[in-house]
Fold each of these.
Amino acid sequence: MRHKDSFDTQRRNLLRLGAYGGVYGLLAPFMGGFAFAREMLAENRILVVLELSGGNDGLNTVVPFRNDDYYKLRPKLALKENTLRKIDDDYGFNTHMAGLEKLYKDGRMAIIHGVGYPQPSFSHFNSMAFWHTAAPNSGEPYGWVGRLADVLLPKGTPHAIVNVDATQSLAVRSRHHVPVVFDDPTRFSPKGSPFEAEFADSGEAQNASQSFLRDIARSAKEASAKVGEAWEKYNSSIDYGLVNLDLPKIASLIEARMPTRLYYTSFRNNAFDTHVSQSNLHSRLLTYFSDAVYAFIQDMERIGRADDVMVLVFSEFGRRAAENANLGTDHGTANVMFALGNGVKGGHFGTPSNLVELDETDNLIHTTDFRQVIASVIEDWLQYPNAQDVLNGKYDKLGIIS
């Protein structure tokens, strides 16, 4: 199935390029053929961002079972070597991560170690805001996904961003685009003032403000119709497990050829805030997460879009290196991130944080700035040439895209 779907996707892309053949023939002397093809194929590429809210414990997710210091820090919470899903000689996944183990061993998962940022916050609210904006301690009003849309896509591009949640995330807040935000696709309808429908159906606007409101209303009305229609037609045999993390909703829109390039969803409600009795709870959470992401990648294979879609996974911080007295872990710093998909270069990236050389708060010292990961995604996956336009600074890329 994977090889067939990959071939079909490539064939469709080549046919699409063929439609431009006449124009390309005229322009070829003035442009690089490979650069042109790359730009055309990049237009199909989609980024799905998945947030693990609450602060996932990276050390008990990607377990350094060869490191004795891990077991010294966590005499009761450390996962024993013989219970792990080993992915190489040094690391193993939590035993409940069967789906991600398959993706990793298939070369479709990058693990990025030691991810964080300078002067980290231990507040869920503050740290999440820093991650959402990719601008720690700055007060930046727009999210990095929103700013990415502003530079990646023309102003007014319909449905540029989709955020599946009960409320809009700061991450998708944009200066020039209005994100499509919904929770239940069967009940999704434009919300706002009672005269929005009038604006949506009205003719000439009388002034700039009225024109702005009319355009927003029309976009919302059109989006609600497209989301409802896509969800009604979606019929997948893929099993997403007990908690699907809203990924089937995203799959339905991708299958329906929604023009969206940027999707954002989350494992909600601070689920990973495991201060007390972490072991069983964390294992269940990782089961849901692993099953859902693996199923989503399978679903992309089913619809022939696996080569076009990448999933980026983060949590607002890691957990403290040592276990606490309640058999849990407290708010920490450096963590792991994941990138998944056919276009990802599988393996380990970044330098794991040293488990002995901790900071003054006895927390892990980050070795990879999370904006390095975002810069890699912006330039190498989405093929936007200058991540500085989004991140307001230059960050070394990691080579996570194949």
Amino acid sequence: MRVTTVVIGAGHSGLAVSHFLTALSIDHVVIERGEVAHTWRTERWDSLRLLTPNWQSRLPGYAYDGPDPDGFMTMPDVIDFVHGYAKVIEAPLQLHTTVTAVRRSPAGYEVVTDQGVWEAPTVVLASGGFNVARIPPVAAAVPGSVDQVTPQRYRNPAELAPGRVLVVGASATGIQIAHELQMSGRDVTVAVGEHVRMPRTYRGRDVQWWMDRTGRLDEGLDDVDDLVRARSVPSPQLVGTPDRTTLDLNVLTDRGVQVVGRLARIADGSAQLSGSLRNVCNLADLKQQRLLELFDEWATGAQTDADVDPPERFAPTRIEDDPPLTLDLNGFETIVWATGFRPDYSWLDVPVFDRKGQLRHDGGIVSDSPGLYRIGLNFLRRRKSSFIHGAEDDSRDIVDHLARYVGVGDA
């Protein structure tokens, strides 16, 4: 089977690419291993909501139009939203088709699937950036009596073994799961490394309103000093709830969650913890303070101070005087590894990786292999790239480049 472009992945990013390909009359197919929005359907816990408010849920030619623009979509809502988009744009879908290999060929690329082989001069990888949970090597030393779970496996507290839970990681995923477990009556400890502290609302507006209005979300590749660093920054400590509550380490501590330092080593059933907890939290507090100052400066310069509440400042993260430096893991029933994710490129048989196994690309354009593109990664081209609404600008840029490559139209 031959086509100009094969898009791998029918999530919101792949569908946004399909929208722009169709607009330029570029024939293509969107291959998906399951149903549309497969990852949202199968690899998210039950209570999860988007971190972005509904008014930010938009894709090219399509946007949320419900009665609660300031609310946050549940996972069924997200699935319906993405599925509805696929119908509206009439994406050329090839569902329940697993890609087993992508390799160079005389035609450009050969995309091998369990339903046949596609030949195309261009391929867009839209398979997501959260395919495989990052589990640190120290996990191998966890006592066999302790169950180990990733956020991809976690669904709700009832599915975990009774007893104490250690959540490793304090970004959005870690603090949300820790909070839910504690609310269910569990004894919870959180091992904290680098994190981004951010209030849900500031001066009466959602923090995403501020990020949007100040232009932070539109910052691009040339607007940051260290792009590698920008792409690896943890997701902010946010939760999307109807009451727009802030969830941070102070909230967890007030609820009775034990906060300890980063898990550094495990030996003989004992976890050794980093002594840098206070410094890590102080740095997160400082960065939050700088962000709020940026918001204040913008509000003054844009003469919108009168339209928002007065400036706010938040209490520093509270750390006990002598945080423990060890934990007896035999006292825990479960460890949840909320330590991030990485893409799965096991089927990509093209020499486009660096020494760390990361795909080499320039804003989604894989220059080492012309005709190969990537979409849907953190800070792919802009700070908003990882959000649903960030797919529009990134996809437009990628498809414009692709169109020039195949000589279509005036692109």
Amino acid sequence: MAQSLTQKIQAILGVKADGIWGPKSQDALHAVIGPTTQSDPTLAKIQTLTGAPANGHWDPTSQKALNKALKGQGGLGAASGGNGPFSATASTFADPKDVAAFHKCKANGHSDDYCYGKGDNGVGAWGADTTSTTKAMVAVHQQDAFARWGSWAGAAHRRVRVTINGNSVLATVEDKLGTKGRIDLNPGALAKLGLQPGNLWPCQWEWVV
């Protein structure tokens, strides 16, 4: 029997080729992505299969192509939380005031962990520039990431739709949030929603797979 696309990718990654894309498969992919600084042939092979530019460098475009090729597979599915929509409170991060507060804290000799309680460094958990005013990004809580995808790695670069006051924005998950019941919006997401940083709004959000 011919291998499915999922099985082919799993075989490239050296995990059990069972045709089910779950946390173990996504974690194996991120184990390759993590240390990559130059073009990686393993990533290039996967990109070729998914139709992404086969340059050996993994970015949100590559992850989006993978998600599309897998037709929404991944994580733990509807049985453990589904795609939403979920009711939450939307807050903001990585705006100029937030970034300035973080760097002021660091200048005073405090640790990164302490300063994350004061502001944000503007760099996402997977390296994205979350200060962007044109690219919509969000941070989600571990509980939400693990309920749907089983791990942080599985949730990375996934798309979500956030709706506030009847307006919606599509954004990618690029950072981690420490407060349950929240979803954080970066300047790019705020701009598309016509909102100002530093406020809180009731919202609905959902995974877009």
